[in-house]
Amino acid sequence: MSTIYIDTHCHLDLLKEIDKNPTQEDRLPIKSISVTNAPFLFKPNTILFAQSKNIRISLGLHPELVSTYHDQIDIFKQMLPLTKYVGEVGLDGSIEHRGNYMLQKKVFEEILVAAGAEDNKILTVHSRNAANETIELIHKHLKNTNCQVIFHWFSGNINELRSALKYGFYFSFNHRMVTSKKGQHLIAEIPKDAVLTESDAPFTFNNKIKNRLDSIKFSVKEGSKLYNIQEEEFKSVIYNNFKTMLLK
């Protein structure tokens, strides 16, 4: 059984006072993908976590911030060869972001084309209120590549989830998703070989769960119930899925 937890989507640079003690998160028994929200944040993060063994830094351009940072797409492309990990990227069709949806789509497609050209990237993807188009754009641009895709905190419907599964995509869930009825329904539809855990720290923290380790442990505990297997077995399932994804 694995002694290591997996966090495929967190924002470590946004944790309180992380700059004063960047090794604190690396000492946890968690293999992590720490996403960034804009290209200019990537290099400072690689410097901040340069001594880390368990933290991988991801290059991102968050859909909610595209209107502000869309002009950094060229910087994104320049930095892309420096990392295997891409995120947070994607589309957001929420009311407050619908006004720049076409710009989001343009930027996301540029990201997908660039990632596909490199052929070996792992993407962690945002798809709130835009699941169907996000899925189809990824399939269009990455279907003939070795890139791997993780849908982070998926909130689409069952048919959209099944469509993404048909394309071989992964799904990561967090402690907030696993405690909602819709989230539980979605998670239960994900095959064991396509499921991963995330914390989305610090955005998911509350009075009961205030750190990543508690978040991931809770997700493993509650997720194991949905799959009707022992907690330690589910922990190993997640670890093995992560390991398999890295080797693809």
UniProtKB/TrEMBL annotation:
What Gene Ontology molecular-function terms does this entry list?
Answer: hydrolase activity, acting on ester bonds; metal ion binding
InterPro entries, from UniProt?
DNase_TatD-rel_CS, Metal_Hydrolase, QatD, TatD-like
Q: Where is a divalent metal cation 1 bound in this sequence?
A: H9, H11, E88, D200
Pfam families referenced in this protein's UniProt entry, alphabetically: TatD_DNase
Q: Which UniProt keywords apply?
A: Hydrolase, Metal-binding
Q: Where does a divalent metal cation 2 bind?
A: H126, H152
Alphabetized SUPFAM superfamilies for the sequence: Metallo-dependent hydrolases
Q: Which family does it belong to?
A: Belongs to the metallo-dependent hydrolases superfamily. TatD-type hydrolase family.
Q: What is this protein called?
A: TatD DNase family protein
Which species does this protein come from? Answer: Dyadobacter koreensis
